[in-house]
């Protein structure tokens, strides 16, 4: 498996692959890879002969006081895992390679990214859409795989790709959970035993909501959210948001529709780790 560090080399390799008739899929990551990321590589391999995993801790998507400096960077182990999964190459550019000193161009999606994490983390999605654009222009992929764990991020990227006519097919891959239900995240490694136990309240609150909706499709959403809040706070979570939304537009629902896809999203901090989780429900 090759390690590529510069944009020029990455573009050259991708062009060669395309020239030989191969499809190229990219799995953008910030490293600290876990089973969730590896599942994205497996999805990528179903779509393309060549799979590039990008590993870049993108400074522009971290706000002040967030965990940029503490973000884990076990590069050797990440590369070993990518190799084991059969990735064709990893792209590991430096910050200087991705952001020239006088870099002054941003890509900014101005609707889907406004609420939820966008409201709590101003500038976060501008950082994501900008780096994803740069990664696409370096890797020149046919397909890009993103996890549904970051559901809003996936929706923002889909909108950006549609609006800017990127010739890239975006594929959303299912969220992967630990055996006890905790959504896999690189940030789980910040949790001590007690916080990890408390963090299970995120998935429990979603399970509770699914059961209630299954029992009664006229359930009052305000009451349901209040019950979910109790569950999360019972796990000592500092709640950021609980939202019940239309799955595609991410518009808030006042009542449950008779049919269609909805998504329930939660975010809360447990000690040093801000965690997110979500679940999809098909109604009707
Ligand atoms: O989901 C992530 O790990 C990051 O937000 C991404 C898409 C790699 C951009 O830095």
UniProtKB/TrEMBL annotation:
Pathway participation: Cofactor biosynthesis; (R)-pantothenate biosynthesis; (R)-pantothenate from (R)-pantoate and beta-alanine: step 1/1
Assembly notes: Homodimer.
Heme listed as a keyword: no
Gene that this polypeptide is encoded by: panC
Pfam families in alphabetical order: Pantoate_ligase
Residues at which ATP binds: 30-37, 147-150, 176, 184-187
Record protein name field: Pantothenate synthetase
Main location: cytoplasm
EC id: 6.3.2.1
Function (record text): Catalyzes the condensation of pantoate with beta-alanine in an ATP-dependent reaction via a pantoyl-adenylate intermediate.
Other information: The reaction proceeds by a bi uni uni bi ping pong mechanism.
Keywords attached to this entry: ATP-binding, Cytoplasm, Ligase, Nucleotide-binding, Pantothenate biosynthesis
Residues given in the record as beta-alanine binding sites: 61
CDD domains: PanC
GO terms for MF: ligase activity
Subcellular location: Cytoplasm
Catalytic machinery residues: 37 (proton donor)
Record organism: Lentisphaera profundi
Binding site for (R)-pantoate: 61, 153
Entry superkingdom: Bacteria
Matching HAMAP family: PanC (MF_00158)
Keyword ATP-binding: yes
Known catalytic reactions: (R)-pantoate + beta-alanine + ATP = (R)-pantothenate + AMP + diphosphate + H(+)
Family, per entry: Belongs to the pantothenate synthetase family.
